[in-house]
Task: structure prediction
Amino acid sequence: MRFLIILIILLPAFAFAGPMKMIGEKGKPSEVTRTINIKMYDNYYEPAEINVKKDETIKFIVLNVGELVHEFNIATKEMHIKHQPEMMMMVENEILLSDKVDKEKMKQMAKKNPSMGHSHSNSVLLSPGEKGELVWKFSNKAKIEAACNVPGHYEVGMIAKISEI
Ligand SMILES: [Cu+2]
Result:
């Protein structure tokens, strides 16, 4: 009986870990073998295509050189689509403005709704001029892409193709 209860408690956690594992996992800084510099413009990335090897841990140094807020998010297409309502809610709550992220408001709102903190190991959200880092270990088990889910940006093609080599 106790085993069953534990299983029921753990099941949702496994269900959540499933799709994340498919895209790889947060990388350890000590295992980084390559650094890739990404520039975010309005509304595209440079480079627009990234080649990765299986089990490779890459450090992305992401710089927003655009005039709008942008995100660099590593996920499947399905995950990006699912993430978009959360970004829209951040806009509606005036956390995410077109040219800046209101970090103070973000902290306040995150106390009530953790998803408003935009704390995802597979994503960096940057204001214009801001620089961020993301260390990712690729598993190459699913078709993935780096994309920006700021409302409207994915739709106009702010996507960087990630190819397995
Ligand atoms: Cu964007």
Notes: The beta strands are 25-26, 34-41, 44-46, 49-52, 57-64, 70-75, 123-126, 131-137, 145-147, 159-164. Residues 109 and 116 are 6 Å apart (CA to CA).
